[in-house]
Structures are given as C-alpha cells and as structure tokens.
Amino acid sequence: ILYYPIFALTVLAGVVCKKTRILTLWFLILTLFYAALYGFWYMWDLSAGFGHRGFVDITPLLIIILATAFDEFRFRVRIIFQLLCLLSTIVSVQLMFGLWQGTLSYQPTKSLFWQNLLGQEGLPIYWHIVLIVVFAAIAISGEKLRAVSLNQRLP
C-alpha cells in the first residue's frame, strides 16, 4: 500500500459501489492467497524492486473494479475518487523516481521516505503539474465519452 496507494483506493471504491462488492471480495481473497504464497516463498520479496512484483498478475482486476465503480458513482463521488487516484499516482511516481535516481533506497528509513515523497529528494515538483494536466485531460475526455454513450449532457 505504501508503494501503490491506488490498490487501497480501488478496494475502497469496490466496497462503496454495490455492483462491485462481490468482485472486490474475490479480489481480496485472491490477494490474500498471493500474500500467503509469497510469505512461504524462500525469496518472498522477489528481489529488490519498486513494490512487490508478485501482485502484478492480479492488477488488471483492479481496473475492472475501478471502471465499474466509476460508471456507477454519481458525478461528484466520481470526481472525488478521480482526484484521489491522481494523488495516489503522484505518490507512486514520486517514489519510483526516487528509487530510479538512487535517492530512495530499497530499505528506506522513515525520513528518507518522506523526503522523497515531499519532493525534497527525487522527482522535481513541477513534474506533478504535467501529471495533473494529463489526468485532467483523461477525466474530461472520459466524462464526455460517458455522456455521449449515455446520450446525456454534462452537468
């Protein structure tokens, strides 16, 4: 969750949305199975990397949960979740960049983690503006496509 906060956000969206609760429950069961499997593995961390690679196989399920939840949410709730997705993406990119640049080690201390997260080390803060613009463009085009597909007008 520290490396990929969007996992937790998607599970929250899946629990909030009635239509995705069963799929979210199955996703959590599958995640626990993977965690138990890797917990007994002789090299449980799968070597050094950003986050845990072992859960990459089940990540596409998160997209289905999140997309279905977004489709069911009211406009304001959807915007709130989209902003939280943006924030979680900024967190992940900030930490990944720190790892790639060598300012964040594979075993970071608490202070080093926060220094990278807040932009004192790692990715310059101005790159976040680029991410925000990209997310805004995706969100606006997604809302327009959704309105066209539902034959509605945007609020």
Topology record:
Layout: H1 5-16, H2 21-40, H3 59-72, H4 75-101, H5 110-117, H6 126-150
Helix pairs in contact: 1-2, 1-3, 1-4, 4-6
Note down, in words, how this protein is organized.
The protein is mostly helical and 155 residues long. It is 68% helix and 0% strand. Helix 1 packs antiparallel against helix 2 (21-40) and helix 1 runs antiparallel to helix 4 (75-101). The longest helix has 27 residues, at 75-101. It is flat and about 50 Å long.
Structure described in brief:
Helices cover 68% and strands 0% of the residues. It has six helices and no strands.
By secondary-structure content and strand pairing, the structural class works out as mainly alpha
Helix content: 55-70%
- Span of the ends, CA to CA: 34 Å
Rg, rounded, reads: 18 Å
Q: Please provide the count of β strands.
A: 0
Mean pLDDT across all amino acids? 78
Secondary structure tally, helices:
6
